Amino acid sequence: MFPQVSYGLTRTGDTICVTKGFVTEVCTEIYLRSSTKLLTIQIDGTINGGNSGGPVITGNKVLGVALQSCKSGKRIGTHGDVIPTPIIRHFIASSAEESSQNAIFGSLILSYQSLENDHIRDHFKMSPEMTGVLINKINSSSGAYKILRKNDIILAIDGVPIGLDGKVPFRNEERISFNHLISMKKPYEKILVKVLRKGKEHEYNISLKPVKPHISVQQYYNIPSYYIFGGFVFVPLTKLYIDDLSYMCGCVLHDQYEFTDEQHVIISQVMSHDINQGYSDLEDLQVKKVNGVKVKNLKHLCELIEGCCRKNLRLDLEDDKVIVLNYKSAKKATFEILERHNIKSAWAIE
């Protein structure tokens, strides 16, 4: 551990806040508002509200910038996460080259498990000196899709052997998740992946595709996308929305998609009106189909509803729930609802 000093503003923005502490760990952690797992410095000094973005210093060197406070048992704010300088440099360099803010850090977009158990290593024909991790699933958006396979053992990345716990050498005598090697690559860069497949070793050069997440992170500088019809407020599912739903499984972030622009579309709210009576408990459910047509994204849902030529509009939701509305009555009700709530437009779609 070595000492650090954090500088930042208070919530009011008129006072400098200085906190002191020690660096306790360097690891990979999920960044709160991006759902991206990257290199992180953990400190025991407090990061208070308003401190985020301030410099964290040790001696005459900058360690990074304050990111977020973290829970430690039942205590909040007793330690925090810091974005280290290598991540900042990578972000700045990549931002100058890439047009998409979602395509900065490399990723293979796959799930895997450790191989610390002797029996599973024997099952997959690993020799005693071999180490690595077992691939469970590869997302269709991954550059490794149809190159690597389920049940492949990833032995090494760019010649760096992966431990049975999924970690690789880091700095002096430390170890860190092998994902760090991949995240520090830029989109379209290639990595050399060594795998064991059915007892035989193979090597593949894999291009890290820039992947735009279907479950998007919150873009605070953009107007949120929405569409209102019959009092139902439809929105694309975002990471922030998921965080507010304690019952929704986080694995939805890694779903497979049939279309490159596919989104989950959710009913975020039901604005009370006679037209939607009895449907108020259908909030937070995904819209699967409109009149039998699978919904690709929010724009597609809007087109399907606006172009409806039937007497009744049918929406099929998750959990096999169903909404049926008289189309002309629902169209009329939409204007009444917008006027009642002083909403200028029935949609705002990015």
TrEMBL record:
<keyword id="KW-0378">Hydrolase</keyword>
<dbReference type="InterPro" id="IPR036034">
    <property type="entry name" value="PDZ_sf"/>
</dbReference>
<dbReference type="GO" id="GO:0004252">
    <property type="term" value="F:serine-type endopeptidase activity"/>
</dbReference>
<dbReference type="Pfam" id="PF13180">
    <property type="entry name" value="PDZ_2"/>
</dbReference>
<protein>
    <recommendedName>
        <fullName>Protease Do-like PDZ domain-containing protein</fullName>
    </recommendedName>
</protein>
<dbReference type="InterPro" id="IPR009003">
    <property type="entry name" value="Peptidase_S1_PA"/>
</dbReference>
<dbReference type="Pfam" id="PF17815">
    <property type="entry name" value="PDZ_3"/>
</dbReference>
<feature type="domain" description="Protease Do-like PDZ">
    <location>
        <begin position="217"/>
        <end position="346"/>
    </location>
</feature>
<dbReference type="InterPro" id="IPR046449">
    <property type="entry name" value="DEGP_PDZ_sf"/>
</dbReference>
<dbReference type="InterPro" id="IPR001478">
    <property type="entry name" value="PDZ"/>
</dbReference>
<feature type="domain" description="PDZ">
    <location>
        <begin position="126"/>
        <end position="208"/>
    </location>
</feature>
<dbReference type="GO" id="GO:0006508">
    <property type="term" value="P:proteolysis"/>
</dbReference>
<keyword id="KW-0720">Serine protease</keyword>
<keyword id="KW-0645">Protease</keyword>
<dbReference type="InterPro" id="IPR043504">
    <property type="entry name" value="Peptidase_S1_PA_chymotrypsin"/>
</dbReference>
<dbReference type="InterPro" id="IPR041517">
    <property type="entry name" value="DEGP_PDZ"/>
</dbReference>
